[in-house]
Amino acid sequence: MALSNTAKFWTPPIKFTVPGGDPDASIKIFHQEFQVHSKALTRKSTVLRRELAFAKSAPTRRGNRLTYEWVTTINADGSWYLTPCSKISKNVRNLSPAFNNAKLIRSLFQSGGIFVGDMDEEITAFNKFLCVIYSWPFTIHGLPQLKLLVKLADFYKILLALSAHAAFYVSPLLAEECFNHPVEILELAVKLRHPVLYRECLTQCMAPWDKPRYLQITDQTIRTIAETFHRRITRLIAQAQRDLLRDLAALEPSLRKFDSNMPWTGLSIATNGSQILVLPSFYEKCYECPISDAGMEFKEALKLAVEKRLQSGITDDKEKKLGKESYFDMPLYLEIDDKELPWDSREKSW
């Protein structure tokens, strides 16, 4: 679409304030102006530091006191970028704050492109991008917003600052998205080099048990890594099965008579009308099954065999929010050492 249906054509500037200095730069993202500090921009972003020299603005008929100005320009493919006001015509620079819709359209589409997307979403994402630069708190409202943030951070070379931001630990919607869309977020986690997000999503990609989601990964490097960890889980399962059979075989014949509470009763879980065996659920039943005193020796053997393999990194908060049944098909314990992260953790810029 050419314009967002919800976009307003003028709103008051959003001003970023810090003690000891007024904003000296203006950035217009479509209809929304942000007034910021050039020092903050250049301290975090090498790209903005390089472009600052071209963004010095000339005085306008509005008596603009800001030293630097950027406005939005639309590419031919429908994407947008920031252009220093010094590079565009005076009739666009000197628009009144109450300019009409036609003038807005002419100024935005001066490069011949038509924006395809939601202006409001882009503005919100850019607002949070500036919060990264200022180290101000915010939350990430889902996968689409995270994609926009990563795109901005990648272009302006502040991926490190975004990755280190506390927003990843205080955004409940993002945690839920990791459960629902682990493949897409895993690729973003690699770009961000965010170890917690990476471990969480890689673990989620091992599920569901009968058809793990890592098979949907298109990036060959990331998929190869996921396949390696899936083989590790398969090896753990083989070890658990061996231990279970060994301990069962070692029991006295009288102890091999179990009642209906044993874990293999009702093991199958209905999925689309069919019955499947989900080993994570099986191991949980092994661990929790109530059996008679005669079977306590086997009960202890079960615990030793499957205890570590029951771990999946799922927190109590998530379990309460989404329901424990959501995790019946979660992968087993997946330990990822820092040395196994697919990036050099010593690098401070990328």
Draw up the topology in text:
Blueprint (H helix, E strand, L loop, with lengths): L13 E2 L9 E5 L2 E5 L1 H7 L1 H6 L16 E7 L5 E5 L5 H4 L7 H8 L10 H16 L8 H13 L3 H5 L8 H9 L1 H11 L2 H10 L15 H30 L19 E3 L2 E3 L2 H10 L7 H11 L9 H7 L28
Parallel strand pairs: 1-3, 2-4
Antiparallel strand pairs: 2-3, 4-5, 6-7
Helix pairs in contact: 5-6, 6-9, 8-9, 9-10, 11-13, 12-13
Outline the structure in words.
This protein is an alpha/beta fold and 350 residues long. It folds into three domains: 14-122, no CATH class; 138-211, no CATH class; 220-327, no CATH class. Helix content is 42%, strand content 9%. The protein has 14 helices and seven strands. It has helices at residues 38-44, 46-51, 90-93, 101-108, 119-134, 143-155, 159-163, 172-180, 182-192, 195-204, 220-249, 279-288, 296-306, 316-322, and strands at residues 14-15, 25-29, 32-36, 68-74, 80-84, 269-271, 274-276. A five-stranded mixed β-sheet has the order 1-3-2-4-5. The protein has a two-stranded antiparallel ribbon with strand order 6-7. A hairpin with a 5-residue loop joins strand 4 and strand 5 (80-84). The protein is elongated, with a radius of gyration of 28 Å. The two termini are 34 Å apart.
